[in-house]
Design a protein that fits this description.
The complex is a heterodimer of chains A (about 150) and B (about 500).
Chain A: H1 8-29, H2 43-65, H3 76-82, H4 84-92, H5 98-110, H6 118-139
Helix pairs in contact in A: 1-2, 4-5, 5-6
Chain B: H1 2-14, H2 17-35, H3 41-48, H4 57-82, H5 91-140, H6 144-160, H7 166-181, E1 183-184, E2 191-192, H8 206-224, H9 243-265, H10 270-285, H11 298-313, H12 315-321, H13 327-338, H14 346-350, H15 352-383, H16 388-407, H17 410-428, H18 433-456, H19 463-466, H20 468-485, H21 487-500
Antiparallel strand pairs in B: 1-2
Classes of the chains: A mainly alpha (about 150), B mainly alpha (about 500).
Keywords (chain A): Membrane, Transmembrane, Transmembrane helix
Protein name (chain A): Membrane protein
Protein name (chain B): DUF112 domain-containing protein
């Protein structure tokens, strides 16, 4: 790996904090700031956002001085399958209903690991669905529709 | 005696069949997930939090506390058996506990940890019962300025105890506070930072943020390198410690309890500090310090007791002031708010059954851990052999169901994915998530009290310094910040955290 003259991790970290700080600062400015006596909705967030930008700046400056270790391995495959699982569940739980939504969400999440075999994933998701129906739907009585309107019953 | 009648009320509440049942479930679930490596107490509670929302407030909080001790206990089990602490506070246990296990004394190490924890838990429960009421009385005198300053102390301490760079921790707190402000402004009703999404006008869902930042980020991190864990599947035999072991563990347990109880009250994650402090003390006091690192009994007994005592007494600031001492307590505050209880000094007077019930259930929970877990250790050991790739789809499914069940708000699930991503990115950039979560919980409270204090003082910021309690608190905060920034302390602090990793 090429050794860089700066700490990449902290460089990115500083930039991220500055970016987030700017986002909140700009948003705050569109709100009523008020005075120190009667603070408006934008007053405190603006202070915090400025602090965040400052901290980001310090991290950024520090990163230029020292060489740092690399970020290391990133779980791309993990992100690709784990993060969509709750989103998919959210998009389908009303339409498809609880049972298919949880089955498919578990199935998606299963593939985040390179060790998972398709058949194991199917069996696992199936057992998990049965268990969830028993515990959450019947046991705890959560008000979910088990099968939604998209399926026609 | 008020004290005894209060405790009696507490035990009456906590020992109703229903609450005993939920306490048991909590302890078992907590241990179950705490045993699974790589998932600490905070992540465990974040994931199981939604399950408790369907319950009565008392039962729900009792179950959550049970999950907390259970997870902690599970964490020490893995620390001893496979040298993989479930969370940072049991990292110290791994040093000597694992060595004991390698010498074939895993059973003894586990029971020493359990018995030490139980003793410490018993003492700490009484301490909570004794000290909570007077502190509540003081807290009732607090005005907006005092609350503001107190929260500043809490946030600063969380920075001091976070791993790694202090500047990063400061940035994380600011970010957490900002995220906490998302939603409708309480004074004017203006929506803030919602990006025009109406579903976020009540603020970001606390459970979604916690599950994302702690749970999902943790899963992603574990998926980075899927090594097979090399298990020391030492046969766990000879559970009972010998007489000699008992003699050796008494003094460390007592010292650990004292250290842990004192440090646990400190806002900002006292339990971790407590186990480190206890280990250092034991090493200094020991007649043969060379034993440490090679399976010293005191090296398991002391830190485990300190850890558990600290875990209990960290409920004191939560119950009396409504200020969380660590991320777990922040989760408890979130749970209380969702249950419609405003955390703070009024809980003790308005809901005595809840207040004392929780305290009593702490002791019951600890007792259950000892009685149940020692015989069940074999089962927990078996659990360690479940491959990780089977576990996380299960965790993901439960997280999704759990988060959705809180408000039936689909946008909360999107927030989970988003905060899982953000949490993972921040972990990769070596930022500790604990200060962020603490900031997130305290954000709205901090702003509300700041604004109220400023209105009361007619816009004069010196009010924070002219009111004695507030001034003292701010001085403490400034002192803590100064101390951690001092170069010499900084080096030591880095050394401590290095050891931990």
């Amino acid at each position: 790996m090429r050794s860089s003259k700066f700490d990449t991790t902290n460089l990115l970290c500083g930039l991220l904090f500055i970016g987030l700080g700017l986002f909140f600062a700009i948003q705050s400015l569109t709100l009523d700031l008020g005075t120190a006596f009667r603070m408006g909705p934008g007053y405190f967030p603006l202070i915090l956002a400025c602090a965040l930008i400052q901290f980001g700046g310090i991290i950024l400056v520090q990163s230029l001085r020292i060489e740092g270790e690399a970020i290391g391995h990133i779980a791309w495959r993990g992100m690709l399958f784990i993060l969509p699982a709750p989103i998919f569940f959210g998009l389908t739980v009303r339409g498809l209903g609880f049972v298919p939504a949880i089955f498919l969400a578990a199935l998606i999440a299963s593939f985040a690991s390179s060790k998972m075999k398709p058949l194991t994933a199917l069996v696992l998701s199936f057992c998990l669905t049965i268990f969830s129906i028993l515990v959450f739907s019947y046991g705890l009585g959560l008000p979910f529709r088990r099968f939604g309107p998209w399926l026609g019953f | 005696m008020d004290f005894f009648s209060n405790l009696a009320l507490g035990f009456a509440t906590a020992s109703s069949i229903e609450n005993l049942f939920f306490c048991l479930i909590g302890v078992l679930l907590g241990t179950l997930i705490g045993v699974l490596p790589g998932i600490g107490a905070t992540a465990t509670i974040a994931m199981l939090l939604p399950i408790t929302f369907q319950l009565e407030p008392v039962s729900s909080l009792i179950m959550l506390s049970g999950i907390y001790y259970g997870a902690q206990y599970g964490g020490s089990t893995t620390a001893i058996l496979i040298n993989m602490p479930g969370e940072s506070s049991s990292a110290v246990t791994a040093i000597d506990g694992y060595q004991m296990a390698r010498k074939g004394r895993a059973g003894a190490a586990l029971s020493i940890a359990a018995l030490g924890s139980f003793f410490a838990g018993t003492v700490a429960t009484f301490l909570v019962a004794i000290f909570a009421p007077p502190l509540t009385a003081i807290a009732l005198q607090f005005g907006a300025a005092e609350y503001f300053s107190l929260m500043v102390v809490g946030l600063v301490s969380s920075i001091a105890l976070a791993h790694g760079s202090i500047i990063k921790a400061l940035a994380m707190v600011s970010l957490g506070l900002l995220l906490g402000l998302v939603g409708t402004d309480i004074y004017t009703g203006t929506p803030r930072f919602t990006l025009g999404i109406r579903e976020y006008s009540d603020g970001l869902n606390f459970v979604a943020v916690a599950v994302g930042v702690f749970g999902i980020a943790e899963i992603l991190r574990n998926l980075e390198s899927e090594k097979t864990r090399s298990l020391l599947m030492a046969k766990v035999s000879g559970l009972l410690p010998t007489k000699d072991d008992f003699r050796q563990m008494i003094a460390p347990v007592l010292r650990g309890t004292v250290i842990g109880s004192a440090l646990g009250i400190l806002p900002g994650g006292g339990a971790i500090l407590a186990s480190f402090a206890s280990y250092t003390v034991e090493k200094r006091m020991s007649k043969n310090p060379e034993e440490f690192g090679h399976g010293a009994i005191a090296g398991v007994a002391g830190p485990e007791s300190a850890n558990n005592a600290g875990a209990q007494t960290s409920f004191i600031p939560l119950l009396t002031l409504g200020i969380p001492a660590n991320p777990v307590m922040a989760l408890m505050i979130g749970a209380m708010i969702i249950q419609g209880i405003v955390p703070g000094p009024n809980v003790a007077t308005e809901q005595p059954a809840l207040f004392w019930g929780i305290i009593a259930s702490m002791w019951i929970g600890n007792l259950m851990l000892v009685v149940l877990n020692l015989p069940l250790i074999g089962l927990w050991v078996k659990l360690l052999t479940i491959p990780y790739y089977v576990l996380f789809p299960i965790i993901m499914a439960f997280c999704s169901i759990g988060v959705y069940s809180v408000n039936s708000n689909v946008y909360d699930l999107f927030a989970v994915a988003f905060f899982g991503f953000i949490g993972y990115v921040l972990v990769k950039l070596r930022c500790e998530p604990a200060p962020l979560l603490l900031g997130f919980v305290l954000g709205p409270l901090l702003e509300e009290n700041l604004r109220r204090a400023m209105i009361l003082a007619r816009g004069d910021p010196s009010t924070f310094l002219t009111r004695p309690i507030s001034a003292t608190l701010l001085l403490i905060a400034a002192a803590v910040l100064l101390v951690v920034l001092l170069p010499s302390v900084r080096k030591k602090r880095e050394a401590v955290f290095q050891e931990e990793d």
